Amino acid sequence: MKAEYRIRAKVWRYPGKGGWHFATLPAKPSAEIRARFGADARGWGSLPASIRVGKTEWSTSLFPERKSSCYLFAIKAEVRKTEDITAGDTIVATVRVL
User: Fold this and answer.
1) How does 13-35 read in b/e, with b if 16+ C-beta sit within 10 Å?
2) 93 with 51: CB under 8 angstroms?
């Protein structure tokens, strides 16, 4: 683990095919992550990460969102079901940049 952030974020649903759910990190931690780890980004500017919401933790990637310059992550259907998360909810997540 390279860094850990505890964030509050609103869950939103992508309007396109598949209905993926995402959470966008706030501007301050996003800027810090970009400054510290942006040079290590992989395809599409992604960074490997581990996310914990409630008692559920999963491996994923953080992706930069063009319009806000913030990072976002997808929330798997299994996680949403286990943690009773729906679009519009505000979650508290621990984000670990790996």
Assistant:
1) eeeeeeeebbbbbeeebbeebbe
2) yes
Residue 44 clears pLDDT 80, i.e. is over it: yes
Domain count, the chain: 1
* Structural domain harbouring 36: 3-97
pTM of the model: 0.93
CATH code of the domain covering residue 20: 2.40.30.100
What gap in Å lies between CA 57 and CA 79, rounded to an integer?
Answer: 8
**Mean pLDDT confidence for 50-70:** 96
Q: Cα-flanking dihedrals φ and ψ of residue 62, to 5°?
A: -95, 135
